[in-house]
């Protein structure tokens, strides 16, 4: 049960890797992460204002697509102490990498939705219209909202860069969120603090042309990159295949991985926003460990005090070359077949033939183009507003079009906005002080802390955000779970909630996650699922069995014959809302899209659909195979088919009102004395 | 082709949260440590055929991970029924997990019957900060008529032996007549090959309900 991260030795990239990678003229940004000294000085989480880090961003004027984001901590290039850095490419340590990778791409992701990918450049270039004013402004706001950059700066920057008059009109000064998280922006962009004590080596650096780096610059750089990415003319010089074919497999994998991170709707936003939950120790009393006497809490609430920061083993560089588009680590040499369909997976082994590569590229191009098209539709459908908590939110009409688009799958870049909308919509009249409650609840120690602490290291361990013990992801997870256990004493903490929260944390910051979690559990009846005694769980078993009898008699018969009782596999399905590795992550997101739209009843039909999807295996009556299949992560090759099954059954049931009938039957059954 | 076996024994792994139950199962079935384990809600399931004496024995193992949290015990209790043996796991570096073994013994004897073969397993032998001494645990096991072993699911030390010992104990109980494999819910079934041998016996029902 020991965590594996701590034992891995640092691994530096080979020069060939770096060389091949830097040659590329593809669409993605190049991340130069250089950190040669103690991590704690670089990691934003442990140090609100990073004393030694400098972020050097400059757009290459000759090639708009190439953008260097160099992150230096101390001596870099020709520094004799660090010969391995001579080629100035990537060296990074666990948390730095995690946070940097996750943080930097985020605004990009927000701004340009999907259009950046490998080998599919022409598709974007030609098919994507130049960003319309509304989209630019809407997305700029989203960027601002998500990254907590003082708004006036970013708007200015983006407006000037995109030279959009209309965007400039929208340059209203919004309430400055940075007052709530004063150090946020500086941490995000690694702005060096003036009183830095660790600048002794900066004069040695030949690279650093801009030793001081301001927020405006960064926003401009991002926007420029944005423009270059979306410009229809940018690929006229380089054919679409050149980028991928000229790369070694390693370089290519890196590229894919990085673009995956950028594309990922979740991971990016999240890590930036995580900052709001962690690190601002001096700002919010909730984070200061002095107010929380318990040891467990203290581990998760380190706030800015470097000396107490846990030793984080440097992460193997290859790790972040091996994450899929959602930030999950993929074992080397193994392409998750389940995730391949949706493209952007990170491992494409060199042994695969080029024919296959081209096909795959084409397939990816199609997927990306489609998602891009959808994103634009969503952008047109979205209405932006500022919530009471001064957050930029989006609302969508209840029109049938919206519903059918949710069923088709919310585009990754819109998922956070849409989920927030769906949950909030159901939560009219919900406690308006919920945000304050979150902070109050963090102050109280919870009897569940021990169990939460036990479960955190084994929650979504494969995700890059939650790998590091007491890292930012785990800290946020702890805080939300602890706050919720205090907030809702009846529920407390139930095993399984951790993965629900972790999934939400890949989209929202800790505070927002808590707010949405409270609403979700209350308004979707999920509290009854996890409260001791599990009333809704047992009801769900009953309903699922009855539904299986009606809609999938063969499956029901097979399960009966094998003597497999529903609780032996479905407990996990319901309690974790399918999030604890029941299905691939991308499938999970699709399931949640509809869950948030339709409500709890959807869960029954999902269970039914999963059984029906695997009907052919189930009817073989092989007890062991079935048990192993139902209790492991299910291999879902075809999301559409699975969701189609569920939707069809759900519609039928809606018409007949069968679920309500079964609920009444169950209630009557419960009333009878045993 | 499916392997044939003489007996099928149903095992249960239980114990406090985070003691390494599913890692033990994984180590035994797959012969490797389970990296990046998740806490399983519900049960985990695995099986393996081993040779005990002259018999090919299939061990069908259910690990009740979520039994670690109190509220799940109502759900997982049903798994005890139909188990021939149970491994009660504690973490040698966590005293609390050892203290609650008494509770797990009571549960097992009450729900599965007094005949269930119990093994006390001190897991995480690879850790250095031991809180429960071998002597103490061994004494405790003796008092409660259990076999005791220490294991490391990480290195695999003692894992195989634990399952084999438990299987052997059950086979001995069958031989001495202490346990009747024909009794429904005994957690023991004759396998395909023994069926052929013991033709005079009526064919036992195929796998009965594992739980509930």
From TrEMBL, chain A:
Residues 196-206 have a biased composition (Basic and acidic residues). It holds the Pfam family RabGAP-TBC. Gene3D superfamilies: putative rabgap domain of human tbc1 domain family member 14 like domains, Ypt/Rab-GAP domain of gyp1p, domain 3. Residues 1-17, 238-250, 344-354 have a biased composition (Low complexity). Transmembrane segments: none annotated. InterPro entries: Rab-GAP-TBC_dom, Rab-GAP_TBC_sf, Rab_GAP_TBC_domain. GO terms for molecular function: GTPase activator activity; small GTPase binding. PROSITE patterns: TBC_RABGAP (PS50086). Residues 409-599 form the Rab-GAP TBC domain. Residues 1-27, 168-210, 228-251, 335-362 are annotated as: Disordered. Residues 18-27, 176-186 have a biased composition (Polar residues). PANTHER family: GTPASE ACTIVATING PROTEIN AND CENTROSOME-ASSOCIATED, ISOFORM B, RAB GTPASE-ACTIVATING PROTEIN 1-LIKE. This is RabGAP/TBC.
Automatic annotation (TrEMBL), chain B:
Residues 178-212 are annotated as: Disordered. Belongs to the small GTPase superfamily. Rab family. Transmembrane segments: none annotated. PROSITE patterns: RAB, RAS. PANTHER family: DRAB11-RELATED (PTHR47979). This is Ras-related protein rab-4B-like protein. InterPro entries: P-loop_NTPase, Rab_GTPases_membrane_traffic, Small_GTP-bd, Small_GTPase. The keyword RNA-binding does not apply. Gene3D superfamilies: P-loop containing nucleotide triphosphate hydrolases (3.40.50.300). Keywords: GTP-binding, Nucleotide-binding. GO terms for molecular function: GTP binding; GTPase activity. It comes from the Eukaryota. The keyword Nucleotide-binding applies.
């Amino acid at each position: 049960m020991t965590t594996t991260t701590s034992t891995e030795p640092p691994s530096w990239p080979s020069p060939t890797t770096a060389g091949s990678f830097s040659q590329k003229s593809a669409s993605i940004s190049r991340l130069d992460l250089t950190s040669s000294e103690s991590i704690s000085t670089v990691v934003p989480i442990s140090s609100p204002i990073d004393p030694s880090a400098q972020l050097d961003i400059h757009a290459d004027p000759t090639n708009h697509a190439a953008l260097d984001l160099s992150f230096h901590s101390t001596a870099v290039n020709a520094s004799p102490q660090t010969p391995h850095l001579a080629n100035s490419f990537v060296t990074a340590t666990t948390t730095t990498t995690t946070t940097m990778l996750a943080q930097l791409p985020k605004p990009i992701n927000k701004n340009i939705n999907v259009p950046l990918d490998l080998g599919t450049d022409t598709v974007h270039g030609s098919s994507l219209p130049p960003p319309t004013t509304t989209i630019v402004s809407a997305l700029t706001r989203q960027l601002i909202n998500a990254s907590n950059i003082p708004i006036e700066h970013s708007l200015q920057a983006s407006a000037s860069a995109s030279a959009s008059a209309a965007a400039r009109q929208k340059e209203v000064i919004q309430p400055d969120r940075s007052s709530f998280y004063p150090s946020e922006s500086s941490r995000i962009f690694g702005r060096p603090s003036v009183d830095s004590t660790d600048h002794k080596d900066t004069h040695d650096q030949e690279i650093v042309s801009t030793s001081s780096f301001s927020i405006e610059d960064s926003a401009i750089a991002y926007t420029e990159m944005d423009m270059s990415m979306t410009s229809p003319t940018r690929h006229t010089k380089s054919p679409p295949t050149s980028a991928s074919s000229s790369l070694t497999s390693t370089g290519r994998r890196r590229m894919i991985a990085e673009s995956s991170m950028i594309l990922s709707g979740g991971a990016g936003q999240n890590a930036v926003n995580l900052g709001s939950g962690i690190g601002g120790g001096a700002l919010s009393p909730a984070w200061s460990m002095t107010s929380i006497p318990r040891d467990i809490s203290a581990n998760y609430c380190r706030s800015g005090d470097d000396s107490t920061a846990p030793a984080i083993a440097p992460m193997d560089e290859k790790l972040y070359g091996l994450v899929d588009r959602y930030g999950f680590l993929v074992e080397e040499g193994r392409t998750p077949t389940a995730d391949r369909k949706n493209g952007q997976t990170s491992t494409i082994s060199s042994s695969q033939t080029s024919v296959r590569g081209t096909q795959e590229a084409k397939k990816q191009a199609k997927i990306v183009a489609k998602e891009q098209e959808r994103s634009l539709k969503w952008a047109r459908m979205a209405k932006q507003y500022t919530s009471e908590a001064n957050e930029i939110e989006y609302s969508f009409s209840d029109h049938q079009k919206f519903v059918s688009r949710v069923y088709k799958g919310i585009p990754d870049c819109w998922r956070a906005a849409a989920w927030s909308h769906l949950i909030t919509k159901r939560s009219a009249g919900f406690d308006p002080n919920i945000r304050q409650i979150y902070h109050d609840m963090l102050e109280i120690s919870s009897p569940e802390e021990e169990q939460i602490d036990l479960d955190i290291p084994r929650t979504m361990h494969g995700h890059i955000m939650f790998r590091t013990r007491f890292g930012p992801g785990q800290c946020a997870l702890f805080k939300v779970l602890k706050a919720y256990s205090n907030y809702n004493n009846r529920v407390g903490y139930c095993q399984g909630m951790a993965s629900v929260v972790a999934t939400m944390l890949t989209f929202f910051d800790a505070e927002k996650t808590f707010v949405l979690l409270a609403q979700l559990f209350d308004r979707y009846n999920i509290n009854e699922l996890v409260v001791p005694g599990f009333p809704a769980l047992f009801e769900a078993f009953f309903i699922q069995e009855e539904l299986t009898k009606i809609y999938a008699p063969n499956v029901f018969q097979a399960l009966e014959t094998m003597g497999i009782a529903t609780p032996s596999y479905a407990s996990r399905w319901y309690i974790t809302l399918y999030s604890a590795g029941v299905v691939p992550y991308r499938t999970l997101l699709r399931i949640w899209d509809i869950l948030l739209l339709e409500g709890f009843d959807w869960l029954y039909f999902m269970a039914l659909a999963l059984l029906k999807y695997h009907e052919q295996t189930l009817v073989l009556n092989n007890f062991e195979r079935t048990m192993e299949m139902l209790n492991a992560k299910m291999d879902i090759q075809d999301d559409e088919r699975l969701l189609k099954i569920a939707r069809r059954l759900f519609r039928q049931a809606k018409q007949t009102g069968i679920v309500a009938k079964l609920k009444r039957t169950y209630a009557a059954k419960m009333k009878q004395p045993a | 082709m499916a392997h044939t076996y003489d007996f099928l024994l149903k095992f249960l792994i239980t114990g406090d949260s985070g003691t390494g139950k599913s890692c033990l199962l994984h180590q035994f079935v797959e012969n490797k440590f389970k990296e990046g384990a998740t806490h399983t809600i519900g049960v985990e399931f695995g099986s393996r055929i081993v040779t005990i004496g002259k018999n090919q024995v299939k061990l069908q193992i259910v690990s009740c991970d979520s039994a670690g949290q109190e509220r799940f015990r109502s759900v997982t209790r049903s798994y005890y029924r139909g188990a021939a043996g149970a491994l009660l796991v504690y973490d040698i570096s966590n005293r609390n997990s050892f203290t609650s073994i008494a509770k797990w013994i009571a549960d097992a004897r009450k729900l599965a019957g007094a005949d269930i073969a119990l093994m006390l397993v001190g897991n995480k032998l690879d850790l250095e900060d031991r809180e429960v001494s071998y002597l103490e645990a061994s004494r405790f096991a003796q008092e409660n008529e259990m076999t005791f072993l220490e294991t490391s699911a990480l290195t695999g030390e003692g894992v195989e032996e634990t399952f084999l010992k438990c299987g052997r104990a059950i086979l001995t109980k069958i031989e001495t007549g202490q346990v009747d494999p024909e009794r429904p819910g005994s957690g023991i079934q004759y396998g395909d090959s023994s069926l052929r041998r013991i033709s005079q016996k009526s064919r036992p029902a195929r796998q009965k309900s594992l739980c509930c």
